[in-house]
Amino acid sequence: MSEFTKFSRDAMSADFQPNNNGPAVTKSVFVGDLSFFCTEIELAMAFSPFGEIAALEIKRGRYGDSLMHGFVEYTTDVAAHKAIMEMNGKKFMGRKMR
Question: Are 64 and 57 in contact (CB under 8 A)?
Answer without folding.
Answer: no
